[in-house]
Amino acid sequence: MKSSLAKKLDITIVAAFLSFGSIVVAQPAARPLDIQGLDQFAIAGIRSRAMGGTGVASGNDASALFSNPAALAPSAFEIRAGDLFETTKRQQTQEWVPMRPIPGLSVLFEGLTGTIKTPDSLGKPGLPLSAWSSLQKQYDDIRPNWDKNSVGSRLLSLVAAMPLTIAGMDIAAGIGVSQVINLDQYYQNNNSMSPYLGQERPDPFLIGARNDTLHVKWYQYSRTREGSVYGITPGISINLLPGLRIGGSAAFLTGSSDDNERRMERGHINIAISNGVGTNFMVDTVYYLQSKVGTSKYSGSMFTFGLHFQQERYSVGVTIKPPMQITRTWNRDVTSLDTTKKPFPVRIDSLNNRTYHESGKDYVDFPLSYALGIVLRPTDKWTIAFDYELRYLADVELSSASNSTVSHPWVNPKGAMRIGAEYRASELLALRGGYREDVQAFSPDGSAIIDEPARGGIYSLGAGIALGNIFVDLAYEYSILKHQDIYQSNVNYNTREQHQFMMEIAYRF
């Protein structure tokens, strides 16, 4: 009885292992490069970054122009410039589940078949195995796990602000340029497949009681995007009542990115199915390499309206961003190396290249978003700040100039919490720290809760130094994002670890 139960469970697991979505596509996580990165909105002010990204109610310098223009209230003409240096490490580790009827399949994906000695037929030396029965080995030296390190620096902000008095009204005006969106993005999977074996969601398709051969394209996939969207931002704030200010700003967005996609075919896997169960498999060679190299240019406008109410021991701030649209205009060259029609074996130097150009335009419509900030000052030395921002990324709509179809590419309907504190050790030195949630716009494959976004965390430290009319703000951020793509056949552990160092120098005239 135990043996029968074990057999039934084994058949069920193998059937799930050989399942794939009702729409046959590549691995969901290996989505083609389109608008990735446009959800990564940046925070400009270094003081704000050091305090966990809070700034809706805690802004007190010219950088408030970018977080809440109503808090823009400099005591004198002020100019600020900030820069950022970062190191990033990304990695993926795969763990595959061996299956009893076809254990060699998971061993193949783990890159371990090369270490196994090829057996002969029935233990008789010199008698070769059939193509289906021989040990299946990969035709390259690619392993499932990878890691990638990168470094970079960029201008974070440059801003100037000054107080004005017009018709007896207390007014502050400012203008600046800042990084609004950090477009940097990277993904890689050395065991991408179409259809993807073991895919559970959105709906698995279990192979029924039939005799057939399942054909799977097995390839390595990677995508890279590097760039930024900057905003040229004028803004103004007006003092309506003692402690109460309103303000607004308009950011005119412009930016570009270098885009790169690469797909290298590793083999065609043929799986023999008998009564709905995989019984054997064979790997055919294939020569195919495709790369897509190009650029994207971004444009749009973003308006921010704010309110700021400040008292001696507390402050409250609110910002509202009306719906906006960002346009992405892209161009790329596609190069493919394909020998499908050539007999094997084929010499590498006889392969033919095919190159063509593609271009298009995408429209990304963001819904209304808002943020609320609260600041408490229990003593003259301590400032505690809290922000909550809600962007409704799940309602973002993507359309293109060539296709009237509208899609919702992201899943995040949730807000992000930020908390920070500042301790004024003296008139010359302020110490800061904070934390903020890093809620992503994607859901890991196989997530227990469908459309639940991946979540990371960002921890920050910093200091402010006052040297007469010169002010120096320093900040350090450590961010960590971990998520798992879970399938019936394997688990992919993805990690992104980042260190960011920032400095801002200001001068008040």
Structure description:
The protein is mainly β. It is about 5% helix and about 60% strand. It has four helices and 22 strands. The strands form two sheets. The chain has a 14-stranded antiparallel β-barrel with strand order 2-3-4-7-8-10-11-14-15-18-19-20-21-22. The chain has a two-stranded antiparallel sheet with strand order 1-6. About 35% of the residues are buried.
Which characteristics define this entry?
509 residues; 14-stranded antiparallel beta barrel; disordered N terminus; two-stranded antiparallel sheet; 22 strands; mainly beta; Porin; 58% strand; 4 helices; elongated
Number of structurally distinct domains:
1
| Superfamily (CATH H level) name | Outer membrane protein transport protein (OMPP1/FadL/TodX)
Number of helices: 4
Highest CATH level, the class: Mainly Beta
In the CATH hierarchy, the architecture is: Beta Barrel
Q: What portion of residues belong to β-strands? A: over 45%
Overall 3D shape: elongated
Unreliably modeled segments: 1-27
